[in-house]
Amino acid sequence: MLLAAFVCAACGLVYELELVALGNYLIGDSVTQTSVVLSVMVFAMGLGSLLAKRFTRRPASAFALVECALALVGGLSVLTLHAWWARFGGYQAAIVALTGLIGVLIGAEIPLLMTLIQRIRREDAGRAVADLFAADYVGALVGGLAFPFLILPAFGPAAGALATGAVNAVAGGAVVLWLFRDEPEPRARALLWTGCGLVLVTLAAAAACSGAIERAARQALYGAQVRFAAQSRYQEIVLTGPAGARPGTDTGTGTGTDPAQPLRLYLDGRPAVCGPDEYRDNEALVHPAMGTGPDARVLLLGGGDGLALREVLRHSGVRSVRLVELDPALTGLARTDPALAALGGHSLDDPRVRITHADPLEWLRSPSGGRAAGPFDVVLSGLPAPPEARGAKFQSQEFLGLAARVLAPGGRLAVRAGSSEAGLWPVESGLRAAGLQTLPYGIAAGPATGCGPARPQGFLLAAAGRPGLALAADAPLPRSLTEAGLRAAAERLAAARPARAPAASTVLGLRRQPPAGPDRRRTGPPQGEGR
């Protein structure tokens, strides 16, 4: 019985983590999703414990029913929620309802297990509780560690939940029915065995169809032909566009595909690249920083798609580039997919480029990382600026200070600050706290393309001395930038700078950033959000 408690606790925590991870992927706000799932789950567990008191007269039968129901609901949870969100969009109410149902079933386990243990051996209640809780907590530890290190990498979210459900049904239902086979009447025992078998058959059928279900959900979600989809250790990567799409030899155009079906890259369901307008953001990040001083040694933080790197390599003075990207699956895709590789000008294969797969913040602080690799003439932070605390560590004072520390004398640091003007100023405060002088600039909203209306983007250029805005003579002129336009944007933003500068974000005091434009939780392909 303690072994059954151990396995059931492990399965219960895996269901909980699956819901947290799926909520983070679908909605993007990890703090809110974790808080909602944990709060609802704990409340529902208490409710389930109260409801279980009514079924302690036949604890073995009740426990078998609970475990079969939990295996079915938990095992199908990921596929159900993903398909529902992709098809209908409404997700918050669904995850709360499913979390509550799973919590009620998990909460019903402890009273029933306690009753069953007391039937096996009569002992002091305190000792019985200690044994049961020890098995439960150790099982939770194993489930919590197995989820990120075994289940997610080996199976993925959907198949991992289905496999967990199968283990739950066998351990919770079949084992208990075997140990306490004399409790149910023969007819009831046959029905319970049949129920467990049907649950296993249902989970097996769902596993066989999971690929088709996920493909249909992606088709409904992204609204374009999916040419690549994979769950890496860090994120889900989806690339859409015509299967035979190959941008032309002029990689500077950034289109090369049917304008009605441009190449799109999504990371964890959120748009990262859209072919026809990606150059605007990448040109604005790279060229101003490269235009006012030496550019022989460049550090690019993020940008594993190779598009910002393409702009860096346009400068003939570049001798070496260190690219630090967390996810090797992203750089692998950018190298091997014909369309995405051509869009990036095959920049990742340039002999001047050295790729390091590591968390940029951890790499910068490591003695064998940023300290040993620097100094750099130009540091470019091409990391996304999401409107929530999950990714704000890359705009924190600590991160910016570490990035400033690897600058060579006369070096420049450029940071993407997002599409919300209000998000510029905390980043500027962080750069100034690192001892740098700053210059805000941006690109205005552009005309609609195959990606929809091009949204404005804000950037900050920083250096030990007063930074200037210019375009370098050792590279072709950008398509979206002019020196006059950059200076006009800088003057406008300088005039809009708040009289009292907001405090810089810190790793321990990350704050939610103001929303940046339309809601990104949608059922069709997001429009106009280049990385």
TrEMBL record:
Catalyzes the irreversible transfer of a propylamine group from the amino donor S-adenosylmethioninamine (decarboxy-AdoMet) to putrescine (1,4-diaminobutane) to yield spermidine. The gene is speE2. It catalyses: S-adenosyl 3-(methylsulfanyl)propylamine + putrescine = S-methyl-5'-thioadenosine + spermidine + H(+). Residues 241-260, 495-531 are annotated as: Disordered. Its main location: membrane. The chain crosses the membrane at residues 32-52, 64-85, 91-117, 129-152, 158-180, 192-213. Spermidine binds at residue 305. PROSITE patterns: PABS_1 (PS01330), PABS_2 (PS51006). Residues 198-464 form the PABS domain. PANTHER family: THERMOSPERMINE SYNTHASE ACAULIS5 (PTHR43317). Homodimer or homotetramer. GO terms for cellular component: plasma membrane. Belongs to the spermidine/spermine synthase family. Keywords: Cell membrane, Membrane, Polyamine biosynthesis, Spermidine biosynthesis, Transferase, Transmembrane, Transmembrane helix. This is Polyamine aminopropyltransferase. Residues 495-504 have a biased composition (Low complexity). It comes from Kitasatospora indigofera. Its EC number is 2.5.1.16.
